[in-house]
User: Which sequence fits this backbone?
């Protein structure tokens, strides 16, 4: 899971399926940066980077060590970005079976597969 670039292929929130993922990409990449690890998240609008801690069961973003690009996006893409930000505010449980990475918490889930360029 480390240094593999993923793209979300499915997701859910409190209301149901995130059908917008078909045309609005969310990408995910955990890599080393300095003395620690960061997650680089691409959202439909622009994305963000944050320090991250990965245990055997959870991924936790350190929002005090977060870098967010500041650009304006029209709805609905801005709504999609807002959902990704809210979703990652809470610790994420995960499962990784070498083919699919699923991250989830009480706000929803994202199911991702490795990008073909990173496998």
Assistant:
């Amino acid at each position: 899971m480390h240094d593999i670039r993923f793209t979300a292929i499915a997701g859910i929130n409190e209301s149901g399926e995130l059908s917008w993922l078909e045309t609005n990409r969310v990408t995910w990449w955990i890599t080393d940066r300095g003395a620690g690890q960061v997650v680089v998240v691409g959202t439909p609008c622009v994305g963000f980077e944050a320090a991250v801690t990965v245990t055997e069961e959870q991924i936790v973003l350190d929002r005090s060590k977060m870098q967010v690009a500041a650009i304006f996006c029209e709805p609905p893409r801005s709504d999609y970005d807002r959902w990704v930000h809210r979703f990652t505010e809470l610790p994420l449980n995960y499962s990784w079976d070498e083919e699919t990475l699923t991250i989830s918490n009480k706000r929803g889930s994202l199911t991702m597969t490795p990008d073909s360029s990173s496998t």
Notes: Residues 77-87 form the longest helix (11 residues). The mean pLDDT is 94. The CA atoms of residues 79 and 88 lie 14 Å apart.
